[in-house]
Request: fold
Amino acid sequence: NAGVMQNPRHLVRRRGQEARLRCSPMKGHSHVYWYRQLPEEGLKFMVYLQKENIIDESGMPKERFSAEFPKEGPSILRIQQVVRGDSAAYFCASSPSTGGYEQYFGPGTRLTVT
Amino acid sequence: QQQVKQSPQSLIVQKGGISIINCAYENTAFDYFPWYQQFPGKGPALLIAIRPDVSEKKEGRFTISFNKSAKQFSLHIMDSQPGDSATYFCAASISNYKLSFGAGTTVTVRA
Reply:
């Protein structure tokens, strides 16, 4: 049973470019969460999605960031016009569709903006 | 505003010793309290979790103690091993919802 998968694992972008981060939840999970971790800090919630719906995006910066979880395919976190401050590790987690509060994390995507 | 406060920031323990990490929260609506273990360059791994209707939960060498009235919970790592050297995060959530994380504790176990 594969865990949460994220790709790419490492991503380097120049300032002003776009970054696309992908997350495939565990089999049977339809809840996806994105978190950001800055160096030497804890994880900060960004957005919570279910299939085709954004449930809570209160942790997302107002501009340049967007997320989706389509009916088919992985969840995508998109960062437009990246800046150096966007450099961080971005983690995706998934949880079961019914019952169970456990969130299982993927290995993360480490974004470096040069 | 950090909803979950974690201490200490780091600790060093001898092999075989006990590691204790403490967390405090403010939001009384929280009803799920997990602990995660993270190794450098890896994603957080769920270690153990507790609901507020129990005061203690034990899994192997890891124990969570929960004090609802004080709004505090702690992780005890018994018989600490070098392989336990990692960063540990406490967290809290309301049902199956977004997790609020503590700042993390780096544990170093000396052989």
Remarks:
- Chain B touches chain A at residues 6, 32, 34, 36, 42-46, 49, 89, 93, 95-104 (CB under 8 Å).
- The mean pLDDT of chain B is 94.
- Chain B has no helices and eleven strands.
- The radius of gyration of chain B is 13 Å.
